Amino acid sequence: MEQATIKKFEDAPEKETEQPKDTAETKLQDTEQVPEDGVVIRIEHLKKSFGDNQVLKDINLELHKGENIVVLGRSGQGKSVTIQCIAGLLEPDEGKLEVLGKEISSLNEDELKEIRTKIGFLFQSGALYDSMTVRENLEFPLTRVLQIKDKAELTKRVEDALDSVGLKDAIDKYPSDLSGGMRKRVGLARTLILRPQIMLYDEPTTGLDPITAREISELIVTLQEKYETSAIIITHDMPCARITADRIVVMNDGEYIATGTYDELAKSPDELINNFFK
User: Fold this and answer.
1) Which residue, 62, 203, 240, 263, could crosslink 217 as a Cys pair with Cβ 3.0–4.6 Å?
2) Where would I find the ABC transporter domain in this sequence (predicted)?
3) In terms of Cα–Cα distance, which of 274, 231, 267 is closest to 250?
4) Mean pLDDT of 172-183
C-alpha cells in the first residue's frame, strides 16, 4: 500500500474546525453541540460479536463537523453494525464511543434520548408507515419526540422538510402512491425534520435505478451543504461513494484498513482495495 496516496486509518487527517455560525431558522441544529476539536463522532477500539461471530474486531474512526465519510466493504463485513452502534440500536461489547463529545456508555437514559435526537438514521427501506399519509409520517416524530402540538408549526415544519427534498406536492399521498425514489426522499425528509447534527445513511441508493440513485446521492450532498450536517454513509454503490464522500474508509474482516479520497484509493496497488473501484 502506498503511504503517499493512501493513509492508514489511524493517520486520517484532521478536518479544520469551522467557527460557529449564527443559527438561522432554516438550520437543522436548533441547539448545536460541537466539541472544541470539531470531532462529532469518535470511535476507539470498538468490538461487537454475535455469538461466536466477531463482526467488529477493532474499529477506530473520527467524523469531523461538516464531513461526509463513506464506508466501503463486502457484504457481511459489519458496515451497518457500526452505525447501528452509533445510533444506539446495538450495544458494543468493548471500546469507546463518543457522540458530540459525550461517551455513550456513561449517559443515563434521559441523556441518551437527548443525544439520539441529534442523530438522524436513514434506513434502507425509508422506514415509512404505510397506513399514514406523508404528512402524518413526518408529523409523527415531531409530536412524539419534540412534543410539538401546535398545528401551524407542525404544518410549517412538514412543508419545509418536504420542500427541501422536492416533494411538497406529495404531502397528502400514501407511501404506496410513491415511487421508490420518492419514498427515499420522504424518508430523508422525515429524518431531517428532527434537525439532527449527524446523519447515518444505510445503503441510501439500494433498489433504485441509476438515474434516481444519482439524484438521491446529489440530494444528500445538497442537504449536507445547506444544513451543515456531518454524515457516515454505508454503500456499495460506487457512483454514490464518488458523489457523496469527502473521505472513504475501506472495511475488511471487521476492521477499517485504509482511508483516503475516492481518487487516492482508486489508484491503490492493493488488490483488495482496488477491486472496489474497477
Assistant:
1) 240
2) 41-278
3) 274
4) 94
234: amino acid identity, one letter: I
C-alpha cell at 226: 445547506
pLDDT tens profile 182-203: 999 999 999 999 889 999 999 9
Return the bridge partners of 64, or none: 39
Among positive and negative, which fits the CA dihedral 147, 150, 152, 153? negative
- Tell me, what's the pLDDT at 109? 87
Q: Which fold has domain 39-126+196-276?
A: Rossmann fold (3.40.50)
The three-class DSSP label of residue 49 is: strand
Cell numbers linked to 76? 457481511
The CA distance from 65 to 46, in Å, is: 21
- Provide φ and ψ at 57, rounded to 5°: -95, -40
Q: Hey, is 135 helix, strand or coil?
A: helix
CB 265 within 8 A of CB 273: yes
Say if pTM beats, i.e. exceeds, 0.90.
no
Residue 176, classified by CB atoms within 10 Å of its CB into exposed (0-12), middle (13-18) or buried (19+), is exposed
Strand runs labelled E in 38-142: 39-50, 53-64, 68-72, 94-99, 102-103, 119-122
Which of the two residues, 33 and 97, has the higher pLDDT score? 97
* 133 backbone φψ class: left, alpha, beta (φ>0; ψ -120 to 50): beta
- Which residues are 272's β-sheet partners? none
Query: pLDDT tens digits, residue range 95-118?
Result: 999 999 999 888 888 888 889 889
- In this prediction, residue 2 has a pLDDT band, given cuts at 50, 70 and 90, of very low
Neighbour-count burial of 2, counting CB atoms closer than 10 A to its CB (0-12 exposed, 13-18 middle, 19+ buried): exposed
Q: Counting Cβ atoms within 10 Å, is residue 248 exposed (0-12), middle (13-18) or buried (19+)? A: buried
